[in-house]
Here is the input.
Amino acid sequence: MNGTRYWRRALGDWGGTLILVIALIVVLFPYTWIFLTSLKPTALVAKPDVWLFSPTWENWREVLLESDVPRYLLNSVIVGLSTVLIALTVAAPASYSFSRFKTGGGPVRFSILAAEMLPPAVLIVPLFLLMFNLELLDTHLALIAAHLTFVTPVITWFLIGFFDEVPKELEEQAMVDGYTQFQAFYKVVLPTVRPGLAAAAIFGFVLSWNDMFYALILSGGNNKTLPVAIAGFWTFRGIEMGKMAVAILIAIVPVLIVSFFIQKYLVKGLGGGAVKY
Amino acid sequence: MADIRLDHIEKYFGDVHVVKDLSLHIQDGSFTVLVGPSGCGKTTTLRLIAGLETVTSGKIFIGDQEVTSLEPKDRNVAMVFQNYALYPHMKVSDNIAFGLMARKVEQAEIQRRVQRAAAMLGIENLLERKPKQLSGGQQQRVAIGRAIVRNPNVFLFDEPLSNLDAKLRVEMRTELLKLHRELKATAVYVTHDQEEAMTMGDQIVVMESGVIQQQGAPREIYFHPRNLFVAGFIGSPAMNMIDGRLENGDFISTHVRIPMGLSGPDREVVLGVRPEDIHLPQALRQERATPPITAQVEVIELLGSRAIVPLRLSNQAMKAVIDERFLNQLTEGESVQLVFDRERLHLFDADSGERIA
Here is the structure.
């Protein structure tokens, strides 16, 4: 009797583990492959079925020291940070207002996501013309403006759940303690939702960081961002796979690391705004 | 320190009329308890005094100053919330000092006052901790410390003890009262617990449906409830209510006829008898006793020196509190002769609920 139960449980454990292993392979295989590609000598890059080779750091050296990739990396960082900074400055009070005062009620709260629901292709033409007329094409500013159109609504939505969890009494206490309502907001409520703000910032940063569509059309020359630069390894001489692999790793690894540390808050933020209504 | 005057206060939330034409004078230095069932408007009244809600009409004065349209920060009141509302991102000392910082008090003075408040409450060793590292009772002390450190005109308490366990609650009651004696500050305290109201208040304001039912010292509220609501709300176990008629000055019901010596028209009335005013005939001097009634003892709930005895008179359920020495005279399930204390009877008009005698 006990034996059967033991085997059944063991089988269940192994089954679960097996599924996880399969999932891990599916997810990690591309990364592994890209990493291996980045280490392959040029002659072997076009041969994905070759697994055994003597690794070389040639691609890394060329990309990091001899190409413009570091500059594009910096562009991505500048655009991402500026976007997040502006978006948070707007989104935090907006989100607080939705949470605390039920501003506009459910419909308005939901409609801030409207921009999210449009395909970017709808926005790009007016944005392009706007930037063209303002002579802002190929500047960081153009790209920051474009990224704000989707980062601001998302992190506004994202933060609502965090503000919902702050008891009203906290700011009332601050008001009785001698502060104005606005002081109560930034001295008491904002610090209380710090983990949420951090998660929202990273989430927004990743959205900006990963954008290729707007970046391709609105930025160019020295101001292009990393995703555009990665695509740039696809040249008329063919794809420079090895260097591209290096650039891809440079683009995703920081994001992966940061996401790992904030995953708990990411889940909470994505669920929080949606559940409480 | 200051007194508080509420002058014909009305408060609506949308269509809901929460506070109705409320006028109240809270004496300087008193410990006034607002008590009533949930939804009676007591918390709203407190929040109106704090300035966290604005009145629909009426005026509020703290001391000589009209504060009706002042922001909470300009009223110089301190408040302790039911959930303590400690700032989670600040350590205890900063929580206590936060209100002083708003008032630009000097750093050295802040230090001194935080230390003194902490010493008064016995939380000196907790000052460096964050609120979530504290127990409920400790959080409570910090919340109180935050209030006293500011030397406010008025202390407002919104059910501050209801999140504590029973033993701690009784301890904190005593401590709050001691603190109040020491500071001699005006305090307004909201609770739904009538026992807390009785033990803590030197003035009690009983509220129901946004209206003050009675205001007075605990003894007055207890021994001379002005209407049926107050009579039933204050006291535990609750006052027994016997429906009957007043005829030629006598109270008459199916079970009993009690000469009350009252003049006035015959009418439907309710006789109120507190459980502790029901006695065995031998336990009360005869001239104070009413004619005996016969009731059936349902169970005996011994509390120690006394017992609560649920009784049944045909269709009427009652409760008596009987001294332990007389319990040998009672048997569960059997009938017993009982008398009421004539000098402690309450008579109310059945229609208006107002007190007659």
